Amino acid sequence: MNINWYPGHMAKAKRMINENLKLIDLVVEILDARIPYSSRNPDFKELFKNKMQLVVLNKSDLADPLITKKWQDYYLSKDTSIVILNSKSGAGFKEFLNSVNRIMENKFEKDRLKGMLKRPVKVMVCGIPNSGKSTFINKLTGSAPAKTGDKPGVTKDRQWIKINTNIHLLDTPGLLWPKFNDELVAVNLALTQAINDDILDIEQLCKKLIEFLSMKYPINLAGRYNLESINKQPYDILLDICENRKFNKLKGEPDILKASIIILDEFRSGKMGRISLEEPNDF
Ligand SMILES: Nc1nc2c(ncn2[C@@H]2O[C@H](COP(=O)(O)OP(=O)(O)OP(=O)(O)O)[C@@H](O)[C@H]2O)c(=O)[nH]1
Ligand SMILES: [Mg+2]
Questions:
Q1: Sign of the CA dihedral with 145 first, then 199, 38, and 67 last
Q2: In the CATH scheme, what is the code of domain 8-171?
Q3: Is the CB of 174 under 6 A from ligand 1?
Q4: CB distance 41 to ligand 1 below 6 Å
Q5: Atom 7 of ligand 1 has which residue's CA nearest to it?
Q6: Is 197 close to ligand 1, i.e. is its CB under 6 Å away?
Q7: Average pLDDT, stretch 130-151?
Q8: Which end of the chain is more exposed for a tag (fewer CB within 10 A), N or C?
Q9: Could you tell me the residue ranges of all domains in the chain?
Q10: Contact by Cβ (8 Å): 80, 53
Q11: 8-171 with 201-282: one CATH topology?
Q12: 171 CA to middle of ligand 2, Å?
């Protein structure tokens, strides 16, 4: 699979992030809990090297809880501050606010010693497209000032949002990096919809998903589609799913594209259960 994609608005977004950096006290990177490795933008390391940082594993409701726990331990072992969230329900938000206060405590103390008034912490919310940045901010404010959507690239401009008198957040557009060196990273980004489906080969992507599921989540796959055997090539499993679900074209032949679209959708919306595509030991 050859996915190389860096639209003009991302180059613009990166410039915007760079220009605003001097105003920022803390960078929050929103990762997708199903792919904490692949959703981490390698460009951020250099970009934010002088900034305080907090990592968020969002969409934890879709990820495998045992594997999310492993990721949490992994980050803690690297002394990285991390919070696990579900931005749809608001689960983990209290921990998020506590973490921001804890990370910024030193700064508040220094300001206080200098006789400065406590001013709001300026937080920049960054991450790949579709990781849930705007949903997170909206849920945190309790209203809906930031536009969201189930496709990547919804946020295009800069938006400052007051959470309370202590915290101001800056929403940013989703950022990818110009070249994916590792095909698995590209596939995982595509599976979780950080890359727009329009530029992808959906059947091939679905076969990659089936291949992964038959190895790591065989019960979820077989159970969802009533499959007797999954010891087959991904394409043959797709054919079985077409038969079981009656995905046929007019002349009766299997409708592989329709099946692929539906299978991807069912994975993405959590209908197959809570599935993580990556664990720390994989890397
Ligand atoms: N299940 C689940 N879905 C979520 C969560 N957070 C966000 N979403 C969904 O993910 C999709 C993308 O959310 P957005 O908030 O628009 O993502 P974004 O990071 O702002 O995207 P861009 O602005 O395009 O970069 C939406 O369909 C949200 O409803 C979560 O914690 N759990
Ligand atoms: Mg957004």
A1: positive
A2: 3.40.50.300
A3: yes
A4: no
A5: 132
A6: no
A7: 78
A8: C
A9: 8-171, 201-282
A10: yes
A11: no
A12: 7
